[in-house]
Amino acid sequence: SYIYFSLHLDSHYADLALGENEFDTPVLSQQTIEPINNKPCKTITGVKPVNNLTSHTGNTCWFFGKRNSEMSPPLDVASIRREEKTEVEEDDKLSLLTWNIDGLDGEEQPQRARGLCSYILEYSPDVVLLQEMVQPYIRFMHKRLATNYTFIEGGEIGYFTTMLLKKTRVTLLDSKILPFRYSRMMRNLLIAQVMFRGQKVCLMTSHFESCKDNSGERMRQFNAVIKRMTVFGISATSVICDLWEQLGEPEKCRYTWDTWANTNKEMRFKNRLRFDRVYLRRAVKDGVPRMEPHSMALVGLERLKCGRYTSDHWGIYCTFSFE
């Protein structure tokens, strides 16, 4: 099997070190949730009640694109996308879009939701991983995309992660939600076992704890996910790779949160950070095809007619080949 997962690393995530096992409860099905820390837990889709939920300024994706906010997108962007999409489908590559959509931002939300759907329809990815999803977005997207995509939601209240699987290319086998025991922000790991053109693939997405003060919890969550991806007896570094690093660290895909270029947030200090990341764990069994990174690009770089961007994060569109 192959494991791919995208995650959102918030600011100040450096000095990652192996920590305690974060997952103290068994893997939960999408329809069940068990008490955590011996406290009663409402039976909903993988989300536990949270008291005094702290606000945050973090985001939910894995890359930042450096571009002057006044620049127009390259003239050949649309043609490149169409060519890449056609190539993916013809060559049986798995295509994936991951994006922190900043659903918590209420500014121009209907136009931004329409922009998100337009990007999904244009790129036509096999898999879509979204973070900071909210119910208004879900309802809007269901009306426009449910015919072509299977929806898997990592929660029902507040904000949460969501997966979309293209029905003609990806078959859902099972999905689970793994809550982070100590999260104060309803964070969890959403997992889906799928079949893609005869090959089993495990998909994961998560939005780690936000803000500098929660760096310790964020590190625990990151390490817990890496540990879950690791094959027993095999070093994680030998089988797990950062997609951006594996593809030669392309400068145009370095920054997924770029307040110099993206003006959705009014920030006192400008920042360019690689919050959003994609990790791949290759198959290790002999005779099993290995998934390899093929390409990546940032999306969402164009302003909408309302003057805002689809999100304060850029999305990451990437493709994978089987060898």
UniProtKB/TrEMBL annotation:
GO molecular function: 5'-tyrosyl-DNA phosphodiesterase activity; metal ion binding; nuclease activity; single-stranded DNA binding
Residue ranges constituting the Endonuclease/exonuclease/phosphatase domain according to the UniProt record: 97-183
Pfam families: Exo_endo_phos (PF03372)
UniProtKB keywords: DNA damage, DNA repair, Hydrolase, Magnesium, Metal-binding, Nuclease, Nucleus
Cofactor: Mn(2+); Mg(2+)
SUPFAM superfamilies in UniProt: DNase I-like
Single Gene Ontology BP annotation: double-strand break repair
CDD domains per the UniProt record, alphabetical: TDP2 (cd09080)
GO cellular component: cytoplasm; PML body
Subcellular location(s) per record: Nucleus, PML body
Transmembrane intervals: none
The protein's name in its UniProt record: Tyrosyl-DNA phosphodiesterase 2
